[in-house]
Amino acid sequence: MESIGLGEVREPGVPGASRPDFTDGKTDSEGHYFYCALTWTCSVSVPDDRTEQRTCLICGDRATGLHYGIISCEGCKGFFKRSICNKRVYRCSRDKNCVMSRKQRNRCQYCRLLKCLQMGMNRKAIREDGMPGGRNKSIGPVQVNTEEEIERIMSGQEFEEEANHWSNHGDSDHSSPGNRASESNQPSPGSTLSSSRSVELNGFMTFRDQYMGVSVPPHYQYIPHLFSYSGHSPLLPPQARSLDPQSYSLIHQLMSAEDLEPLGTPMLIEDGYAVTQAELFALLCRLADELLFRQIAWIKKLPFFCELSIKDYTCLLSSTWQELILLSSLTVYSKQIFGELADVTAKYSPSDEELHRFSDEGMEVIERLIYLYHKFHQLKVSNEEYACMKAINFLNQDIRGLTSASQLEQLNKRYWYICQDFTEYKYTHQPNRFPDLMMCLPEIRYIAGKMVNVPLEQLPLLFKVVLHSCKTSVVKE
């Protein structure tokens, strides 16, 4: 990447510093390292408007390449992948012939998926292990995409066998907080939870399924418990309690793994300097690179690092790195992100064309990021809680390609209970604090997934709006 006004793209931290040997000599069978498994770092180049412009065969938006066999945009690529991976079954309220355009593509998910299949998107091109790499130029459109095959996918028959297998062989551990919802991960819309105490969660899931097209992931199987959770009886005064020494020790180990030093990426701009889109984009890339680098170093210091394989760590990091960065930005690095970076974005003035081309996905991300920021600002999440939330989010046993899912589940439960014990001990008069914290995790996961669909050139404007809104609201308080 060329050197621009804000400086060269260099290794985060000390100039000239090299990346540490993350693996300690440990590699998986193919010799992959964690950092090589990732597909987006600061090496991403600034979009060049001079390149050939092609349109998405699904919605007519600007295409970004060959995805699952056809030329399409990032939005339709992500929509198709989520629909297939989550085994989504949609319904059209009209005549199954809705218009597909950039502005109308989100109005009917049924017709959008139908057109993806009709145009030849190949669901077999989606990586089975859930890792990046769905774009495969060696796999063309489905050669025989008959009406019968499309109907089987649209009706959910294609997913029925796998869904039945999940229902018959799912988690039967009823000792965990809140029994798992027997139907919460089924593909049909309007599914209900087996627990009578989880009606509120079902409403939340129905809303997200119907309007967002994203179901609550199995990773958050404890969420039903949160809606019936009560740290203390409302009729009795809070009881004094102590924190288990082992829990305190594990929290301390998690905090020791975290790099709490201020970010090393410079964000100082001279007064009167007008920041360009390319310069702000390059700065965002450098920040993302440093934050990603810190997540890699964090994993190496985790107390359970030696308990899992390098392959599993690669799968986990490749699937959760965006969520980890977002969580870190909202907590331990929030003063810099919503302070110094906000000052830089204030010196950037988007053009009329940039404003006009801003996507619907970007608008939704802006709204949800602002809401999430205010939620974290209201909770004033402590470093101890942040460390536990980060570990819980990272230890996602439902990611494809893992070799130790059961072990991951036990680790997840461990830090779930530790976080619960800590909040009940430290915040005695906030009985709903723990469920409030845990409900932030699905939102972070959802936002991170939506940000993938936002074109790279729109990120400067997105961050400008979010940071300005959040900083302004805090000043008013």
Task: Describe what you observe in this structure.
With 477 residues, the chain is an all-alpha fold. The chain has 3 domains: 50-169, Erythroid Transcription Factor GATA-1, subunit A (Erythroid Transcription Factor GATA-1, Chain A); 170-227, no CATH class; 235-476, Retinoid X Receptor (Orthogonal Bundle). The chain is built from 16 helices and 2 strands. The protein starts with 64 loop residues before the first strand and ends with a helix. The relative contact order is 0.13. Residues 246-477 form the NR LBD domain. Residues 162-174 have a biased composition (Basic and acidic residues).
CATH superfamily of the largest domain: Retinoid X Receptor
- Average the pLDDT over all residues and give the rounded result: 73
CATH class group of the largest domain:
Mainly Alpha
Number of domains: 3
Region (Disordered): 1-22, 159-196
GO cellular component, one term: nucleus
Domain NR LBD: 246-477
Domain Nuclear receptor: 53-128
